[in-house]
Amino acid sequence: MDYRKNYQTWLTDERLCEEGKKELEAIANDEKEQEYRFGGELEFGTAGMRGVIGYGMNMMNRYTVMRATQGLSEWIKTLGGVAMSRGVVISYDTRRKSEEFAKAAASVLAKNGIKAYLFDDVHPVPMLSYAVRYLNTVAGVMITASHNPKEYNGYKVYGEDGAQMSPEDTEKVVAYINQITDYLSVNGEENDLIVPVPKKLDEDYIEELSKLTLSPEAVKKCGADLKLVYTPVHGSGYRPVMAILKKLGINVTVVEEQTAKDTEFSTVKVPNPEFKETLSMGIALANKINADVVFGTDPDSDRLGVAIKNEDGEFVALSGNQVGILLLDYILTRLAEDNQMPKNAAVVKSFVTTGMAKALCDDYGVSLYETPVGFKFIGEKIKQWEADGKHIYVFGFEESCGYLRGTHARDKDAVVASMLCAEMVCYYVSIGKTVYGRLQEIYQKYGFVLDKNVSIQYSGLNAMKEMNGVVDGLKTLKIDEFGGIKVQAVRDYSAAKRTDYQNGSVEIMSIPKCNCVYYELEGGAFVCVRPSGTEPKLKIYYSLRAKDEKTANEKLVSVQKSVDELLEKAKA
Fold first, then answer.
1. Cβ atoms within 10 Å of 211's Cβ, excluding its own
2. Exposed, middle or buried: residue 510 (CB in 10 Å: 0-12, 13-18, 19+)?
3. Contact 461, 40 (CB under 8 A)
């Protein structure tokens, strides 16, 4: 791809807006920047597209958004007039240009004769997912880059079931997008097909969540006295999270400085509640008022970060795996105590999420299913079981702070997770325990599991290619052990096959394919390597079992050394 030619084509095109022209003129002498912006196209994958905001074919801007929406429109038109009249619902978060991109998408749909429901203010991912089925639309669009740095934005497409669009339908949409080679040729139109989302949806969503409460008596007893600190980290979770906690009668103190819809996320380094640093203002406030727990949600409010007090009274930030295990344990415990556990209950997690989930599910006689990374696959399980009746979905989670109880949404929901975590704290207080104490009891009962994720940052136009190249290289290398822990089997998710090292047998796995290598280690441990689908990072997941935390960390050091050595070989 001739990036210089593409750059000049955009720069000299009279249809380019004034802002775009000035921005491109500013890089007239920057070959590297021109190559990054015009040497490739922003990829539209199964999670939509995500990139740095700016003008160019490899960037997030109104032209790439409108081109993607035109492709979506062409696909919807093939479904017929009924689908067009059902329309598409569009939401957006607090990021730079999110509202502009949402309105641009709506205008393209409207010009194509497709109804576009547009939220009048920021709303989170789970409410967009809920809105798709609430309004019976044929699709949904969410403008967000989730927890990425402030320079990013993104475009996520949802199917009529409320889950992120299936790989099959995404492939059809992408085919239409790729037919549009003139990025600046797509136009929108403001007409009466652009309609507001009914205000009542907000109330009905909160009402739907309140039906999922598991410990109303404990909340009634302890909720008003609970000291909970919440920060929306400048994102879209503020209104719905506060609304559901208020409805339940749970006392909340909010970090006021972080309620502002700040596109720069100026009070945090990165708006990702997985990191303790992102919760630092919440923790400082919690220490000041002697609070019990701290919650934080990301910009599109699909991820929840939690910090609790340890035995020394100091706040510790829990990992996504730890919160997931605590919620899973709490949900199964309460369902069992109230004799509400379905006979065919099932839990779903991604395959890189903690192995401890199996021990808990086995203990309660609940089926556990694994899916590839991406909450849409958990959403697909919900849809499948609603159709065939094989199981009743009770909980789904991913290690990256994503949780969903209920089937109101088909994507991770930090609003319902906030509600569940708050009532979980009330429940343990009501029986004379703490959340931290319960976590230690879980470790004592099922054994300690250390779950750790490491990300290796890549950069440049070929970042995705380089990351995938490393994973491809791993598939050619055989390794018998990591730091003294034997490899029992290897799963190659790109070929959907599992090779058993014990007997040499090869099993074909019935799963969606993705570029990932997963090493099953003795004792139920694992190491997994995969490129991120949304940012230029190679992700390595460790799940190690040991008698205690100290021993697990010692194991981790030697296992990581082995992995680092293997990655170097894979690059060669």
1. 8
2. exposed
3. yes
| Tens digit of each residue's pLDDT (9 = 90 or more) over 469-484 | 999 999 999 999 999 9
Phi/psi class of residue 83: alpha, beta or left (left: φ > 0; alpha: ψ in -120 to 50)?
A: alpha
- Residue 230: is its pLDDT beyond 80? yes
Q: Other CB atoms closer than 10 Å to residue 30's CB: what's the count? A: 11
| Residue 107 contacts residue 160 (beta carbons within 8 Å) | no
Q: Are 317 and 324 in contact (CB under 8 A)?
A: no
Phi, psi angle pair for 73, to nearest 5°: -60, -45
* Closest alpha carbon to 472 in 441, 458, 493, 450: 493
Instruction: Provide the pairing of β-strand 345-350 with 367-371.
Output: parallel
pLDDT digits (tens, 9 = 90+) for 422-448: 999 999 999 999 999 999 999 999 999
Specify the amino acid at residue 372.
Answer: P
How crowded is residue 313: how many other Cβ atoms within 10 Å of its Cβ? 8
Q: Which residues pair with 139 in a beta bridge?
A: 88
What pairs with residue 457 in β-bridges? 537
Give the Cα separation of 560 and 556 in Å (integer): 6
In 3D, which of 144, 143, 137 has the Cα closest to residue 114? Answer: 137
Catalytic residue among 73, 91, 146, 280: 146
Q: Are strands 88-92 and 139-143 parallel, antiparallel or unpaired?
A: parallel
Q: How far is 397 from 370, CA to CA, in rounded Å? A: 10
> Is there a catalytic annotation at residue 146?
yes
If one counts every other C-beta atom within 10 angstroms of the C-beta of residue 169, the result is: 16
Q: Which pair of tokens denotes residue 466?
A: 């380089």
371, burial (CB in 10 Å: exposed 0-12, middle 13-18, buried 19+): buried
| Residue recorded with tokens 């239409």 | 176
Q: What would the two tokens of residue 116 be? A: 């576009």
Rg value, the chain, Cα: 24
Q: What three-state secondary structure class fits 178?
A: helix
Residue pLDDT, tens place only, 331-384: 999 999 999 999 999 999 999 999 899 999 999 999 999 998 889 999 999 999
d(CA 154, CA 102): 11
DSSP state string for 149-192: -TTEEEEEEE-TTSSBPPHHHHHHHHHHHHT---GGG------T
Q: What's the CA gap between 236 and 99, in Å, rounded? A: 12
d(CA 189, CA 187): 7
Question: Is it the case that residue 304 has pLDDT exceeding 90?
Answer: yes
